[in-house]
Amino acid sequence: MPVTRPKRRPTAAETAARAARRVSAAGSKVVFGNREQSWLAFNRRVLEQARNPANPLLERVKFLAIVSSNLDEYFEIRVSGLMQQADSEGAELSLDGLAPREQLRRVHEAVNALVADQYACWRRELLPALDEAGVQFRTAAQLGEAERAWVGKYFETQVQPVLTPLAVDAAHPFPLLGNKTLNVLVSLDHPETPKQEKLMIILPVPRSLPRIVQLAPEADGPRRHMFLSEIIKLCAGELFPGYAVRDAHAFRVTRNSDLYIDEEEAENLLKKIEEELRNLRRGAAVRLEIEDGVDADLFAALLGHLELAPEHAIKLKGPLNLFRLMSLCEMLDRPELKFPPYVPADPTKLPPARTIYERMAERDVLLHHPYESFAPVVEFVELAARDPDVLAIKQTLYRTSGDSPIVRALIDASMAGKQVTALVELMARFDEANNIKWARELEEAGVHVVYGLVGHKTHCKCCLVVRREGGTLRRYVHLGTGNYNPKTARLYTDLSLFTCREHLGAEVAQLFNTLTGLGRTPHFQHLLVAPFNLHARTQDLIAAETANALAGKPARIIAKMNKLVDPATIEALYAASQAGVKIDLIVRATCCLLPGIKGLSENIRLRNIVGRFLEHARIYCFENGGQPLVYAGSADWMPRNFFRRVEAVFPIEDEALRRRVMDEILATELRDNDDARELQPDGSYAAPARAAGEEPFRAQRYFMAAATVRATPPATPSIVPAPGPAATA
Fold first, then answer.
1. Which H/E stretch holds residue 245?
2. Would the N or C end of the chain have less CB density within 10 A of its end CB?
């Protein structure tokens, strides 16, 4: 649909060049951190949790698996983009002035070091600890006679029937290997000839086979496990009678997984995305992972077939794809090796019993997930679907679960005759297929399914319910920082705001009308909406704090987000710091701002928290001369969020809720001295300093305890402990 877009913004290279020429009054040059190295530093923080003995053993195994999962996505998207830039002419420099090839060189160097430390953690720390806990892993060399017989039988009955050996020679072209699929490279020789043929055979392994196998599960004693790749390598000779197996090594290929779609040329976006999803498995190879010790000639041949240079290959000193260890945590019923179960509290269930709509009519409701239940969000939509006085429901869907109760409620509402509109983002990365499925089901039920603005992902989290009350219509709104996904809502930290304030309801309705209809650029006074006013208003809010500091007024910024990359915003924060604004930033992952540089960012402190739950909320607080403004929403401070996505950042206007966000949520995270790390001027992270005798304090642990107390009925008086050392249970 036609939309008036913001004026052309400078490219990253133009901004970086301009910033490099700028010199502050103190004589410091504006500097930026490197985006790729910053993300890798975040993933190293995840590895720290795998190495932390204070975490339960199987939770440490999960963190180790997450490191691999994160690296997969990093190569599929970020590294593949760098490789394309390196092959093109006139590629832009990074914010810190590096060309793509130099960035790739540094990425490979950092990744190799990270992977080496990850596998050292597995071999030296987790494997011995698992063995001590009665959870053993066997290699082929460690199998006893009975175990070897069991493995042979398992291979014969469960594995061999679904394997198809693929020779690679003049008569057999190199096969098309799927993205991140398990394969085994087998080298064969004819035993009756003196020449070593080194015949290359590839065994693709179907995804349907479990990657970790429990050996002889009926036997007593410690649980013994073996990676499927080890079983296949041990028994591969059964597939090649008459030949000798020289060696066998598991490997997998990571491919470029970004979608390339010109929305303006795609008449049917849904069908076009389906086609692209089928093409993803044919994407260019960007990484080869293979077990160490592979024959040099076969390794070179494999790289040649994949059209990869050696620097894009990683030789692993351990099992392929440690993300498969996630299944081990699911297989084992060992609660003593996991975090204690946590049931999110639901303060909306406190007596007297009222629906979420009745509570909203009295005052705004704020929930802090996953400490407080996501159930009221589901209830909000389900009640609307059943309520005969509800006339219309409008909902954005970016990522949701495969069995989404919210989508089911929208279908029920449509079947009941209500006007239901669902704005489905088909290009939510790695969830495209799931969203296509829901889009089709919604359309079949009569829901009006739309896909938003051309060229912009719809990333905002909004639900609008229009209800008839007497002779008037009233709007009820849910606005969030996270997705409408009950499953991830138990793992991600987010905020939910329920409100029926008339001016916010009117602007949410205007946002939906902009996304579903035709019109000129909308005007938003209260909501900060990308791509319309979010970037400009963010700059204005930072500039106002800068002006207040220069005028001697109170000036403070506290901002929490996933990523901080936008160069204009970073420059504005540097200027605010130089003016004396005290700035605290909580940035989970990528950050191109460098704090603590004298004369440039010495008034900026920046930290991240990596713990049991994934930090996901975006919260922005501005002192505003003593009348604080607090916002939350779906947008990070990145160019894509400001200019290439539809985002909604909303004000928290209730005074009590504002104080809760500032004085409890953010203040507690700024006091974390255990899961938190502080970013240093050189881009590294360091643990916060503790005073003598100061106890470790985890913000996430405090939030769990506080949410339980908040949801306790008044008949059982409890006191929420202050967010300090006394609260560290």
1. strand 244-255
2. C
Any residues with CB less than 8 A from the CB of 702 and at least 6 apart, and which?
Answer: 668, 721, 723, 727, 728
Amino acid code (one letter) for 47: L
Distances from the Cα of 427 to the Cα of 99, 264, 303, 407, 484, angstroms = 29, 14, 32, 18, 16
CATH topology of domain 35-337: polyphosphate kinase like (3.30.1840)
CA-closest candidate to residue 38, choices 680, 599, 699? 680
Cβ atoms of 273 and 259 within 8 Å: the answer is yes
For helices 35-51 and 100-121, give the axis angle rounded to 10 degrees.
0
Alpha-carbon distance of 253 to 180, in angstroms, equals: 5
Tokens of residue 549, six digits: 């500091």
Amino acid found at 365: V
The three-state secondary structure class of 146 is helix
Are residues 658 and 650 in contact, defined by beta-carbon separation less than 8 angstroms?
Answer: no
Buried b (16+ CB within 10 A) or exposed e, 253-284: bbbbbeeeeebeeeeebbebbeebeeebeebe
Q: Sign of the CA dihedral 622, 623, 629, 631?
A: positive
Which of 237-246, 345-354, 404-413 has the least mean pLDDT? Answer: 345-354
Does 523 qualify as catalytic in the annotation? no
Comma-separated ranges of CATH 3.30.1840.10 domains in the chain: 35-337
Alpha-carbon distance of 281 to 290, in angstroms, equals 19
Q: Which backbone phi and psi does 651 adopt, to 5 degrees?
A: -80, 145
Q: Quick one: how far is CA 638 from the chain centroid?
A: 15
Residue 132 has pLDDT above 70, yes or no: yes
pLDDT at 14 over 80: no
Sign of CA dihedral 576, 578, 581, 584: positive
Where residue 429 falls among pLDDT bands split at 50, 70, 90?
very low
Indicate yes or no: pTM above 0.85.
yes
CA atoms of 200 and 166, how far apart (whole Å): 9
* Contact (CB, 8 A) for 212 and 225: yes
Mean pLDDT for the chain overall: 88
Q: Which CATH architecture has domain 347-516?
A: 2-Layer Sandwich (3.30)
Helix (H, G, I), strand (E, B) or coil at 495: strand
Q: How far apart are the first and last CA of the chain?
A: 54
- Within 13 Å, how many C-alpha atoms sit on residue 572's CB side? 21
Question: For tokens 């892993």, what's the residue?
Answer: 137
The packing angle between helices 100-121 and 80-87, to 10°, is 150
d(CA 646, CA 532): 9
Among 225, 312, 369, 459, the active-site one is 459
Note if the bond before 651 is cis, omega within 30 degrees. no
Minimum mean pLDDT range among 184-188, 191-195, 396-400, 715-719: 715-719
Residues 6+ apart with CB under 8 A from 171: none
Residue 693, Ramachandran bin (φ over 0: left; ψ between -120 and 50: alpha; else beta): left
Q: Which residues contact 663 (CB under 8 A, 6 or more apart)?
A: none
pLDDT of residue 433: 60
The residue ranking higher by pLDDT, 90 or 271, is: 90
| Helices first, then strands: H and E counts in the chain | 22, 27
Both tokens of 717, joined, read 């008086």
Q: 528-700, which class in CATH?
A: alpha beta
Does position 42 have pLDDT exceeding 60, yes or no? yes
Task: Read off the pLDDT band of 715 (50, 70, 90).
Answer: low
Please report the pLDDT score of residue 259 as a whole number: 46
Q: Which residue ranges does the chain devote to CATH 3.30.870.10? A: 347-516, 528-700
Distance of alpha carbon 149 from alpha carbon 155, whole angstroms: 10
